[in-house]
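debug: dumping io for the single-chain case to check the tokenizer round-trip. Nothing else runs in this session.
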Amino acid sequence: MSHGGHGAKRFPGRDTPNLTKGWRVQKCSIPPQTFKYGRYAKDETMKNAFLSVFAFAAALVVASSSLADVRGGEVTLSPFIGVQTFDGSQQLKPGFAAGARLGYNLNENWGVESQLSFALPKAADENFYSQYGVEGDLLYHFFPQGKLVPFVVLGGGWSRSENLMGTSKGPTFDYGAGVKYFVDHSVALRMDIRQVMAFSPLNKGTTDYWQNGLFTFGLSYQFGGAPVAVPPVEEQNVWLGEESGAPAGKTLITGLKVEGDALEIMASGRIADYKIFTLTQPSRLVIDIGNAVSGFRARSITLNRLGIAAVRFESYPDYLRIYLDGAEGRLIPYRVEETDKGLKIIVTTP
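debug: decoded output
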């Protein structure tokens, strides 16, 4: 093995008189061009991975809103697939990787996570060599209340790696970054990129390491913890007309108001000339108000209160007709009270 993929180390019992050629190339009879699977290929793959993360995050920023979030006290499960790249001295092509992460959100920003990963790269001899890794990481989430949540990660673990030179086992140190895009409060798309330093004792008193990369994409599920608090939806009680003036001699209907068991038809003055009757197919209460005009630009106001589905207006030269459409085709029982500026339609118990 070599430190960071540079130089060569002399092993006991192995004569390496010409270090310019490298004992690995002589021993394994691998043409020099096979090193294209090493450091340069890794750098190119990692560059593409960084670009992919950037493009993924940029696309999600456009679509993101202030819904969904990272919540403290939640357990997370994140299966993934991706690509692992390898230090040049290992002479391994970038290979398919898969695994899963299990974590816990300490609060909105901080979390801990364990990872189990497996990769199966191909070497220059066209054979596959297995790679296993176990890690424990600390995460920090930025903007945890948003739909798009970037994060950084730092941790360490243990790995077992096979290559043309044999099997290596030892501790690892990793760091990286990623982004989560929440589809809803419990499910997020997730992308990670990691740099993994794999240490392996070679000779007594010396330690070397490889610098590998891991680029993954998957889903993240969060569950448990306190239920999500849904803010209560306030019902609308007042609807005001847009018009503020009426022709001379006309009464202006200025708004509608629901209060208790009554619908108040608000007007610019007292309503004395009116008549009320019912119609069927569909069921509706009809109020004709003489010399009145509607202050609403819309001809229909959705109500869905007091058994009234909607209030509709029809204007005629001498009067204004107001329909109170019954919900579910039912006529509402009612009585009428006059006020100083309008009428109250009080819904009574049948």
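debug: round-trip ok. The chain has a mean pLDDT of 80.
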